[in-house]
Write a structure and sequence with these properties.
Keywords: Fatty acid metabolism, Isomerase, Lipid metabolism. With 320 residues, the protein is of the alpha/beta class. It is built from twelve helices and twelve strands.
Length: 320
């Protein structure tokens, strides 16, 4: 679906006046729409700057997530992962008052299933939950860093999604809640699998997950959920995220992918395993022309433009 026009904020439902003054020279004459954008109903995609893809969640009124939505979310990020022209992704909401209100409780996700014996029903349910987890984790699998710009309400499943991105900024008006306990569940799609390793205050994480209480941007900063609180609301936090994305997009994409992989791998492995992995990665990264060109540019005090990464090889599965 093509991005929708928003009369309040301009095309694609966001504005970025702060970015223009800092990185205007990197902006193409018009935002480019990737050819695969039309495949998605609830997600708008555009390149507001070279190599920076803006992913905008757009399911009014509050970006509540039903099954069609989470399947599309996973498919969109898996497709983005294959696009070598994307070096950084910014994730935000088109809606004025919400990033996402979480699970759509009116959808058929919680609908009763046909009668089966307990074991068969549980096994099928487990497969469904794993598919759900896989879709929400798609940003973590992508090689590109993903920066979330959060404003307004971010409840329940929104926290699952935020745990799978790399950088999180919050607008001052952001309101978070690990809400699942209030509907009789423990968060199972990603929040409590990722956040205990990501945040710096596990005591506060326990408090918030056990009570489901709403907490603001400053508490999110204290928790370690976000790295920056941006004064203002949607436009301001999106501007800050795009500005950071433009800065990262000017770096060597080989180095950027390496940084993301190193941090992700280290979170799940011992120090010695991480060093072994990094030595193997760096053995090939040292062969990159980016390293030689970067060193030359530093000596000459020049800026440099790097080539995109190569597109992944496509295989005809019918022949396999």
């Amino acid at each position: 679906m093509a991005p929708r026009e928003d009369s309040e904020t301009g095309r694609f439902g966001y504005a970025h006046p702060k970015v223009v003054s800092v990185v205007d020279r990197h902006r193409p004459p018009m935002a480019r729409i990737p050819p695969y954008a039309s495949q998605f109903k609830y997600i708008d995609l555009s390149f507001p700057f070279d190599n920076v893809l803006h992913v905008v969640l757009n399911r009014p009124p509050v970006n509540a997530v039903n099954e069609e939505y989470w399947l599309e979310y996973g498919a969109a990020f898996d497709r983005i992962a294959e696009d070598p022209t994307v070096r950084v992704v910014v994730l935000s909401s088109a809606l004025k008052k919400a990033f996402s209100a979480g699970l759509d409780l009116s959808s058929d996700i919680l609908a009763p299933r046909p009668q089966l014996d307990t074991a068969r029903h549980a096994l099928r349910t487990r497969t469904h939950i794993r598919d759900f987890q896989h879709a929400i984790a798609a940003p973590a699998r992508a090689p590109q860093p993903v920066i979330a710009a959060v404003h307004g309400v971010a409840f329940g499943l929104a926290l699952d999604a935020l745990g799978a991105v790399d950088v999180r900024f919050a607008a001052a008006d952001a309101a978070f809640s690990i809400k699942e306990v209030d509907v009789g569940l423990a968060p199972d799609i990603g929040t409590l699998a990722r956040l205990p390793r990501l945040v710096g205050n596990v005591s506060l994480l326990h408090e918030l997950a056990l009570t489901g209480r709403v907490f603001g941007a400053q508490d999110a900063l204290r928790l370690g959920l976000v790295s920056r609180v941006v004064h203002g609301s949607r436009d301001d936090v999106v501007s800050a995220a795009l500005e950071l994305a433009c800065e990262i997009a000017r770096k060597s994409p080989v180095a950027v992918v390496g940084v993301k992989r190193f941090i992700s791998h280290a979170l799940d492995h011992s120090t010695e395993d991480a060093l072994e992995y990094q030595a193997t990665w760096t053995a090939f990264a040292l062969q990159s022309k980016d390293l030689i060109e970067s060193a030359a540019a530093v000596r000459r005090k020049q800026t440099i433009s790097y080539d995109d990464l190569a597109a992944p090889m496509k295989h005809d599965k019918a022949k396999l």
